[in-house]
Amino acid sequence: MKPLNDFPKSVCRNIRFVLTDIDDTVTSEGRLTGESYLALDRLQKAGFHVIPITGRPAGWCDHIARMWPVDAVVGENGAFYFRYDHGNRKMTCRFWKEEAERKLDREKIEQLRQSIPLAVPGSGIASDQDYRIADLAVDFCEDVAALPQEKIDRIVELFNEAGAKAKVSSIHVNGWFGDYDKLTMTEMLFREVYNLELEDVLDQVVFAGDSPNDAPMFARFPHSVGVANVADFVGRISDEPTWITDSRSGQGFVELANLLIG
Fold this sequence. Notes:
By secondary structure, the chain is α/β, with parallel strands linked by helices. 35% of the residues lie in helices and 19% in strands. The protein contains eight helices and 13 strands. The strands form three sheets. Strands 1-13-12-11-2-3 form a six-stranded parallel sheet. Strands 7-8-10-9 form a four-stranded antiparallel sheet, with helices on one face. Strand 9 (165-168) and strand 10 (172-176) form a beta hairpin. Helix 2 runs parallel beside helix 8. The longest helix is centred in the middle third of the chain and has 21 residues, at 99-119. It is globular. The mean pLDDT is 97.
């Protein structure tokens, strides 16, 4: 990972899309600061397409798409994208799976919702779970005492044993049934919203993140940026970002915004 200060100015001039994780990337210690929110607003007003790519639930993403200065949002680690047309007052909700498939998945998720906290004492179901459509979020440090790494690994194992995909964020282990992730839904969004193949515009995209569930995005985008706390996961993340900020969490995101806006 190279210091963000070395990011070439010539590359900055080509960037049109700013994709970013939310938790511990835009937020700091569980809160969206005024400075981070202003950075999103400044980026959009400067002409960038701003798209959060998050593990947070559908209920939150509806609010984010409507209320934040963003173009769209990918949620629940790629289960859907939401996009709000302010002129026509219309929300587009594009899911990876049809409703019938999601219903079957929810039945399996409900079984895991009951079994995982029993199998891993100290873990909890995330407080935002009731607003989710497609996945199960198991809390290991947001609203519970921080669990040791071996317990986090055990949660991942339990998801995998049930045939689910599991990804570790900075606060939750998210598990779901389906062959999708943050990257695959981002590719769909670019194709359907912008009529672009992501492969053709990689030089126009920056992605910012902080944790292992961002690894597919770090691997895909040459101009990937980790806020400084991504260093906490060295050795436990399959693909690291190309660049790293000086500051952690939201302050790191502000660094990136200032660099792009100039």
